[in-house]
Design a protein that fits this description.
CATH class of the largest domain: Alpha Beta
CATH architecture of the largest domain: 3-Layer(bba) Sandwich
Oligomer: single chain
Shape: globular
Strand content: 35-45%
CATH topology of the largest domain: Hepatocyte Growth Factor
Number of helices: 8
Structural class: alpha+beta
Helix content: 10-25%
Distance between the termini: 123 Å
Number of domains: 4
C-alpha cells in the first residue's frame, strides 16, 4: 500500500478491488459526488485518486452516488458493507494487455480455490503485495488466480497488514473456470483473481447470458443512454477497461438505459441483486457443450463439460429415474423415453416454406445441470433441450441461447408450505448436562431482505455460556422429508468434501463460547428446506485439537475421481431424544433453514433436427414458423369443431324459423279473404266463382 511515492519503472500504478468491504478507520483525502453527466462513477473516482499522491485508496458508495479518497494506513481492518467497494492503490509490473485497465486484481477474503488443476505453485513466506506481483512475474503459465493464506486463524474482523507474512498459492484456474472449486474458508485466506488473463475474449467461453427479470446489480461501473439491448450487449463484450461480467438494460422512451457490471453473483452471491421494475439483468455465463439426438423412441442428451464435472444431469422432480451422473472424464449421456415418466413434451409446428405448408413435431424436456452430485448451488444451470422425432433424426448444437432466471418463494413440496421462517436469524436451542444451554443458529453474513437465496453467504453458529469447551461433529444436512441427506462434517469434525462446508472455528465473545462455520446457502433438489443436525459434546476443560489437513490428505489419497454418494445419516425426533438421554454430556441439535429456489427458464430451447442448413439460414427459414404446444393444438381443434357445430345448429334453427314464418303468413292471407265484412281498400280478397275451378286474386 505504499502510495506516498510514485511507482518506479517497470512498475505501474493500478488498483486492487475489494467488493463489499470497507475499512473501519479512515482519513479522507477527497470527496466526489456524481453529477449525472459522467458515464462512470468508478472511472471518475479512480482517475481522481491516481492524480493525488496522498490518495492510497478509494471507497465507492454506488447506491449513494459518491466516493471518497483516503490516506494510507499500515494496518486496515475491514467490515462488510453491501453498498460499497474498496479500491487500494498498488505498484505492480503489468503485462501489455492490461495497461489500460482500471484495476488489475480482485481480492475476496474468506474464500479459496480447491482446484484439481495441474498448474499450481506454492510460494512461502510472502506478503500480500508480493503475492500480487508474483501473479504477473512468471513466464511459465498465465495464472488466473492465487490465494494468500495467513498462518493464524481468522477472527470476526478481517485485518490486512503490510508486514504480515503468509503463503501464496498460484493457480491456473479461477472461480469461473471451476465454480464448484470456489469455496468458503474459515482460515485467514484471501482469494486473488487476475483481471488481465481472463478468457472472455473467447466467445465460446462466455457467449451465453442468464436473464434476471425486474432485477439489476447494485454496483454499476458504466452507464450509457439511448442504447438498444443488442448495443448494450456488444458494449459489454467490447469493454477493455474492466472485465464486463454482465449488463442491465432498462427500456425507456428513447430506446433504453445500459448499465455494465464488473461483478458477478459467483463472487458476491445474491446480496448484490436488487429489484427494479422494467429492468433485466443479463449475466454472462459459459456456453454448455450439449448434443441432442432423437433415436427411435428416446431423446438422447450428451453433455461434454470443458472442465472437471462431478455432478449429474437430470429432469427436475424425476432425478432418480430420469438422470445420469458423471463418470470420470467421460461425457454424461442421458437417454429419456419420448413416451414415459420423464416429462418429455411435444410441440407441433406449421411452417410455410417454398414447397408449401409443412407440419413438424418437436420433442423437448427441461434439464438441470447440477455441479454437485447431491445438492443444488447458485452455479447450476437450467436448459431446455429438444429434437424432431423421426427415423435417423440426429443433430448437434451448443447452448448459446439466453436463459431466463426467475426467483420464486414457493416451496418445492406442498407439505412445506406451512413452514414459518425468520429471514435474518434462524435458530434452535437445547439444554445438556449441568443445565448449560447450547444454541444452534444460522446468521446472514451480509445484511439482506427476503428469503435466503442460493449461494448467499451464511454462518452456522453453536454458542454456549458454559466454561467447558464444546466440540461439534457428525454434522448432517438433509431435506425436510428425509429423502435426501449428506454428511458435512465427520466424527472428527472435519469436512467430508462432499459439500463446500468448512470445519468449525472457536472464538469467545464476552462470556459466550462460539463455534462458527461460514458457508454458501444450498438446497436439495426435492426440498426447499435444509435441516441441519449436529452432535455437540462437552469436553473436560479443553477439547483435543484435530488436524483436519492430514485427514483431508488421507481422504484424497483414496482417489479424487471417486463418485460421491449421499450418506444415510438421518436422525429422527425419537432417536434424538433417546440418544441425548443415554449419553450424558453430549447430544444433537437440529435446525431447519428455508432456501429460495429458482424457477426454470421459460424461453430457452436447444434443439436438434433433420435440417442441414447453417444456423443463419435455419433461423431465416424459420421466420415464418408457428410453434404450438400439443395441448394448445388440441384445444384449438376442439374450439374449431365447437364453432362448426354451433354454426350448423344455428343454420338449422334459422331454416326452421323461416319455414314457420312462411306458413304463418300463408294462413294469415287465407283468413283475411274469408272475413269479407272487414274489407278495405288495401285488403286483398280471394273470390271463388262457382263455374270456375280457379282462384282469382282481386285487389280493389
Amino acid at each position: 500500500m505504499d502510495s506516498e511515492r510514485r511507482c518506479q519503472p517497470p512498475q505501474t500504478q493500478s488498483f486492487v478491488r475489494w467488493s463489499g468491504m470497507t475499512p473501519d478507520l479512515i482519513t479522507p483525502v477527497f470527496v466526489y459526488s456524481a453529477s449525472g453527466d459522467e458515464e462512470s462513477l468508478t472511472g471518475a473516482c479512480l482517475a481522481r485518486c491516481r492524480e493525488l499522491d496522498d490518495c492510497a485508496a478509494v471507497i465507492i458508495a454506488y447506491t449513494k452516488g459518491n466516493c471518497q479518497g483516503i490516506a494510507e494506513t499500515r494496518v486496515t481492518q475491514f467490515s462488510t458493507d453491501n453498498e460499497v467497494a474498496y479500491f487500494n492503490k498498488v505498484c505492480i509490473k503489468l503485462p501489455g494487455n492490461c495497461n489500460n485497465s482500471w484495476w488489475v486484481l480482485e481480492s475476496t477474503p474468506g474464500y479459496y480455490l480447491n482446484s484439481d488443476g495441474p498448474y499450481i505453485k506454492v510460494i512461502t513466506n510472502t506478503t500480500v503485495q508480493e503475492c500480487y506481483n508474483v501473479i504477473f512475474s512468471t513466464n511459465e503459465k498465465i495464472y488466473r488466480s492465487s490465494q494468500w493464506v495467513y498462518p493464524d486463524s481468522a477472527s470476526d474482523a478481517f485485518t490486512l497488514s503490510d508486514s504480515a507474512v503468509g503463503n501464496c498459492i498460484l493457480n491456473g484456474e479461477n472461480k469461473f473456470t471451476e465454480p464448484e472449486s470456489y469455496r468458503v474458508s474459515n482460515y485467514y485466506t484471501i482469494y486473488i483473481e487476475n483481471q488481465c488473463g481472463h478468457d472472455y475474449p473467447k466467445k465460446i467461453d462466455r457467449c451465453s447470458y442468464e436473464e434476471y427479470y425486474n432485477q439489476t446489480i447494485k454496483h454499476v461501473d458504466l452507464t450509457a443512454k439511448n442504447y438498444t439491448k443488442d448495443e448494450c450487449k456488444f458494449a459489454c463484450e467490447r469493454e477493455k477497461r474492466f472485465v464486463c461480467r454482465g449488463f442491465t438494460w432498462t427500456a425507456t422512451s428513447s430506446r433504453g438505459l445500459c448499465d455494465l457490471h464488473s461483478e458477478d453473483l459467483v463472487t458476491s452471491g445474491s446480496w448484490l441483486l436488487r429489484r427494479i421494475s422494467g429492468a433485466t439483468y443479463y449475466r454472462r455465463v459459459t456456453c454448455l457443450n450439449i448434443s441432442v439426438e432423437c433415436e427411435a423412441s428416446h431423446l438422447v442428451v450428451t453433455y461434454r463439460p470443458r472442465g472437471v464435472f462431478r455432478g449429474r444431469v437430470y429432469v427436475p422432480g424425476r432425478g432418480e429415474r430420469c438422470g445420469a451422473r458423471a463418470l470420470g472424464a467421460a461425457p454424461v449421456r442421458l437417454a429419456l423415453p419420448l413416451h414415459g415418466d420423464c416429462d418429455v413434451n411435444f410441440a407441433y409446428a406449421i411452417t410455410k416454406g417454398p414447397n408449401g405448408v409443412v407440419n413438424r413435431t418437436m420433442a423437448y424436456v427441461m434439464l438441470m445441470i447440477q455441479s454437485n452430485p447431491i445438492i443444488q448451488t447458485a452455479g447450476d444451470r437450467w436448459v431446455r433441450v429438444g429434437c424432431s422425432p423421426g427415423a435417423g433424426a440426429k443433430g448437434y448444437t451448443k447452448v448459446d441461447t439466453t436463459v431466463a432466471v426467475k426467483d420464486t418463494g414457493r416451496p418445492s413440496l406442498a407439505s412445506e408450505s406451512s413452514l414459518e421462517e425468520d429471514d435474518a436469524h434462524l435458530g434452535a436451542s437445547a439444554v445438556f448436562g449441568g443445565g448449560a444451554r447450547v444454541a444452534l443458529s444460522t446468521v446472514r453474513a451480509r445484511a439482506g431482505d427476503g428469503a435466503v437465496a442460493l449461494g448467499e453467504p451464511l454462518e452456522l453458529r453453536i454458542e454456549t455460556t458454559d466454561e467447558k469447551e464444546i466440540e461439534a461433529y457428525h454434522l448432517v444436512a438433509s431435506s425436510r422429508l428425509g429423502d435426501s441427506s449428506v454428511l458435512l462434517l465427520d466424527n472428527n469434525g472435519c469436512p467430508t468434501g462432499q459439500v463446500d462446508f468448512p470445519s468449525f472455528t472457536r472464538s469467545y465473545i464476552g462470556g459466550t463460547q462460539r463455534l462458527s462455520a461460514q458457508f454458501k446457502a444450498f438446497r436439495f433438489p426435492t426440498s426447499q428446506v435444509v435441516r441441519f443436525s449436529v452432535m455437540v459434546k462437552f469436553c473436560d476443560e479443553k477439547c483435543p485439537a484435530v488436524n483436519c489437513g492430514k485427514i483431508e490428505q488421507l481422504r484424497n489419497a483414496r482417489g479424487t475421481n471417486e463418485t460421491l454418494d449421499t450418506i444415510d445419516a438421518l436422525v429422527s425426533e425419537t432417536g434424538r431424544q433417546e440418544w441425548a438421554a443415554g449419553a450424558a454430556g453430549r447430544g444433537p441439535l437440529q435446525l431447519e433453514l428455508r432456501v429460495g429456489a429458482r424457477a426454470p427458464p421459460a424461453d430457452t430451447l436447444v434443439r436438434a433436427d433433420l435440417r442441414s442448413a447453417p444456423p443463419e439460414d435455419a433461423l431465416a427459414h424459420d421466420s415464418a414458423m408457428v410453434c404450438v404446444h400439443e395441448l394448445l393444438l388440441v384445444a384449438l381443434l376442439l374450439a374449431w369443431l365447437a364453432v362448426q357445430v354451433l354454426l350448423l345448429l344455428g343454420c338449422c334453427v334459422l331454416v326452421k324459423r323461416y319455414r314457420n314464418l312462411a306458413e304463418m303468413n300463408m294462413q294469415k292471407d287465407y283468413h283475411s279473404f274469408d272475413n269479407i265484412g272487414f274489407d278495405t281498400g288495401s285488403t286483398h280478397r280471394r273470390v271463388h266463382w262457382p263455374d270456375q275451378n280457379i282462384d282469382i286474386i282481386h285487389a280493389s
